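This part of the workshop introduces the protein records we will be handling. A record pairs a protein's sequence with a compact description of its fold. Comparing a sequence with its tokens is the quickest way to learn the format. The record below serves as our worked example for the rest of this section:
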Amino acid sequence: MQARREYYISMCPMRLIPKIFVFNDEELPPELRAQRTLNKTRLPQMARYILDNRNDYTFSAITASVDADVKFMATDADADSKLIGRLHIPMTARFIINDGQHRRAAIEIALRENPELADESIAVVFFLDRGLERCQQMFADLNRHAIRPSQSIGVLYDHRDRMAEIARLIVLKSPLFCDVVEMEKSNLSLRSRKLFTLSAIYSATNSLLGSLSDSLDDKSADVAISFWGEVAKHFPQWQQVREGKLAASEVRADYIHSHGIALKAIGRIGNVLLRERSKAWKRSLKQLSEIDWLRSNAKLWEGRALIGGRISKAESNVILTTNVLKKGLGLPLTPEEQRLENALTRGDHAN
């Protein structure tokens, strides 16, 4: 019972999911539908998740409304078992998915590639349909309090993503990062004692290691740990935070180099250095200390890392921040980087 109404939970074989739940209202206007339209770009990745993790995938229950007169037959009249039984649904019943339409579509795709999934099951929660208005309200209610977890905690808990593992290793093994990285939140409050977020370390390291090798192995982790350790040598403020001589909040307020956009830009120039100056990349990084990282230097950072005095995470701003570092280290700009640089110089850069 929920809200004084009966509902039912069943374990449905995967093979029945595409047959029971058929999409037929995608062309209807939103006000006549009980669901959002299917985002088909999400489906291949979701199906691949099932297929690539056959022994370790997890899908939560599908929630659906049934428009029919159903009959529940308890297995036993005994108080402990009267809630277990068979739910009889007419073949003419109409089903509306309130939550899980993308899971349903991904299961159908995965079944076509691997029919062995047919006998595996997924939980389905059935509510009795009481009209379009109620179904629309159910969709709104089911999504009302849904909060996407922060990227940092996603990186912390993801044991399939090798890059996430490397980011965790950097924080664990680096003498500098181990106490100054926020592991759960992806945004730091003004008074936070942390200097970086795990998600920023992840994103920056992804930029660093991208295209360096076909696979991420222990050597990749060692390279990343060595690189960020070397970078830290050129930012004395980082070490002062670690030693308790400076407040992290002051460094974030005064300097660009402690923000995710700067870490990502450093990761990008690191990728170039490791590929093109493999024997001299440490020496090249010394130029980082020659750059004026003060946030108050609006002449240098406004329009790049800053928009109206505030840090911007837009891709174009990451590129324009990277351009500053490339110029400082004597690295050539790519055509795209030069295009944005020219646009900024002309004053028509748009974010």
Remarks:
- The beta strands are 7-13, 62-67, 71-74, 85-88, 94-99, 121-128, 181-182, 196-197, 306-307, 310-311.
- The radius of gyration is 27 Å.
- The first helix runs from residue 17 to 20.
